[in-house]
Amino acid sequence: MIFVALWTAILVFLAAYLWRSPKIKNWLKVLWRAKRWKRWIVVSVVILSAIAIAYWKHPKVEEKVTDTAELFYNYSANAVLKLDSIQKIKLEPGLDLSKPKPEIAYVLPLIINAYNEIVTKPTMPVLVQLDDMLMIELRGYKQFKNRAILLTKLLKKNLGNRYNIYIDVGENSVHTLQISYTGEPWDIEQLCALPVLEYSRTYQIDPALLMSIIRHVSNFNFNFKGTKDKRGILLLKEGEGLEQIELGAQRLSKLLQIGISRENAAATFYPDYGIGDKPENWKQSPLAKSWVDQVLADVTFYRENGLHINFANNAK
How many Å apart are CA 211 and CA 219, to the nearest integer? Predict the structure, then answer.
């Protein structure tokens, strides 16, 4: 619209300027009396007007923007539903999972494991609330005070001091575990760690490598734009949101399985790198080589900060 307004202003200015010249006036009058020129002028004006009106009335295509908060609400809810499907926890009928706080939902497996470790014959924990507060009912125990003390200590050790933990030892064999998060909200990098671990475990790849690639492709921006219709957290032509993390894990797994080196596999994610090119061509570009070196350097950083999987233990 800015260009249309600019050119319209320029044409109006030229017309006003030229119309002040007597010679131009006489020349235009001669042209206007000529029927052929008159028809051409009218047709041209009609066509240009039609183009301008069509452009003005054409509906603007709104770009789809990923709502990061909603994205991780949905991921957290699906993670809880998976725990229910494998009977690690039971969901209270009518439980609201529309806005489960990721900082709490992400540690739910740790909470369940701690409960199973403390209680010799654990009953199925029942999740009754998950938003800014997590509430789990532990049913079927007449005496629970000692186990509540041990479970509280273990959870404080595993979760850290950013979580408030309280167990209401009630009557009628129903005891309620309540947990809230009091620390700083997790940033997008922390939130991405769990899906990266999940898909890395599924496709048997190094999560630190996948995490480092994401960092250097988009810096964890789900609305990142690249060239040739590539966009998203990994600048892929297909997939949206967290789906691109799974697609990235799939690609890494396939490349590594056929014997491509880790650095060559990482290079295929280089933002300006043609997917159809040979993986080793990146070495000819100083910029691409520097990018790959940075990716591999940050792999060590992520491993040292706990982002790793012991596949040997998983296989047992």
Answer: 10
What is the rounded distance in angstroms from the CA atom of residue 232 to the CA atom of residue 246?
A: 13
Report CA dihedral (219, 222, 224, 226) to the nearest 10 degrees.
Answer: 100
**Cα-based distances in Å from 162 to 185, 242, 307, 312:** 11, 27, 20, 32
Between the CA of residue 222 and those of 60, 90, 107, 176, 278, what are the distances in Å? Answer: 22, 32, 23, 38, 27
State yes or no: pLDDT of 313 exceeds 60: no
Give the CA distances from residue 147 to residues 121, 127, 159, 165, 232, in Å, rounded to whole numbers and listed in that order.
Answer: 12, 19, 18, 14, 47
* Residue 234 to residue 276: CA distance in whole angstroms: 16
Residue predicted with more confidence, 201 or 8: 201
Cα angle: 312, vertex 313, 316; to 5 degrees:
95
> Does the pLDDT value for residue 294 go beyond 60?
yes
As a residue count, the chain comes to 316
Strands 174-181 and 90-91: unpaired
Q: Give percent of the chain with pLDDT exceeding 70.
A: 76
Average pLDDT over residues 138-164: 93
Instruction: Please calculate the CA angle 87-92-95 and round it to the nearest 5 degrees.
Output: 115
Predicted pLDDT of residue 73: 96
Residues 6+ apart with CB under 8 A from 234: 213, 214, 217, 218, 244, 245, 247, 248, 269
Nearest to 213 by CA among 301, 304, 298, 300: 298
